[in-house]
Specification:
Elements lengths: L1 H30 L7 H14 L1 E6 L8 E5 L5 H7 L5 E5 L8 H7 L3 E3 L3 H16 L4 E3 L17 H7 L8 E12 L2 E2 L3 H5 L9 H10 L3 E7 L3 E2 L6 H23 L4
Helix pairs in contact: 1-2, 1-4, 1-8, 2-3, 6-9
Length: 264
């Protein structure tokens, strides 16, 4: 029975993608990079959250009335769907995502900034981020540099923060940390690696088997906790800003575990 349900969910995924691609292409051409350009991606992410049973509870105040770089921990490719369902900002993602079938195309049409770790392409990636910041675009960045199990926060790479502090928009830019905390999968509190791995996607885990397992389940419930923003102009040292953001995100995850998992 669960396999039948998973098959139907994946069918809906394909249908939604096939509908969204031409709509977002038209939006891309007509609306450019303004706030209206987020309408189609917003509906796309919301639809996939509904299909796969991904539910989110937002805590804290989201700063959205000026240019913000949101920085937080990263569990899975599903974080894109999760955060995109309520936050209007451009994602910064690894360049291999660009080659994913359909989802890579949608990411491109949504003005995702693809960055590369290879020396030959790293400089171009930095210039793309600088250009986006100068265009007053808000960004969503995962400074761990890769996804994790979701059970702890990996140290942030301070190189991301260097761009925020050496940019023309530094005087008005806010950096707001957020914490993603997984609290339930398949309608039960997460307790072990298997529970976490139903949502988390990392290492050499296969994409298709992961989607299939998620489709067979009853989904996932998460907390996204936003912490007080930091004014970029108050920092001269990228490492100081990086460490402070990391500590906030890490404490946030520990607090979420205590509040929602230890009491379960």
């Amino acid at each position: 029975m669960r396999s039948l349900i998973a098959s139907f969910k994946i069918f809906l995924l394909l249908v939604i993608c096939l509908i969204t691609v031409p709509l977002q292409t038209l939006s891309f051409l007509l609306l450019g990079k303004g706030r209206a350009a987020f309408i189609v991606p917003f509906l796309f992410h919301r639809s996939l959250c509904f299909v796969f049973g991904i539910k989110v509870r937002i805590q804290g105040e989201i700063k959205a009335n000026q240019q913000v770089v949101y920085v937080g921990n990263h569990l899975s490719y599903l974080d894109i769907i999760l955060m995109g369902s309520f936050l209007r900002a451009n994602f910064v993602s690894k360049d291999d995502v660009k080659g994913w079938p359909l989802l890579g195309l949608l990411a491109t049409l949504s003005h995702t900034l693809f960055i590369s770790r290879t020396p030959a392409k790293a400089l171009k990636s930095i210039e793309q981020m600088k250009k986006a910041l100068n265009q007053k675009r808000s960004l969503i960045v995962f400074p761990e540099g890769t996804s994790s199990t979701g059970q702890e926060v990996q140290p942030f790479k301070s190189s991301f923060f260097d761009i925020f502090l050496k940019n023309d928009v530094k005087e008005s830019l806010l950096v707001q940390p957020f914490t993603i905390g997984l609290i339930k999968t398949d309608n039960k509190a997460v307790q072990n690696d298997k529970d976490y791995d139903l949502y988390a996607w990392y290492g050499d885990m296969g994409l298709q088997p992961h989607i299939w397992a998620l489709g067979k389940s009853k989904g996932a419930q998460l907390i996204v906790r936003f912490h007080p923003p930091k004014a970029a102009k108050e920092y001269e040292n990228r490492k100081t800003l990086s460490i402070e953001c990391y500590e906030q995100v890490s404490r946030g995850l520990n607090d979420i575990k205590k509040e929602y998992l230890e009491a379960a």
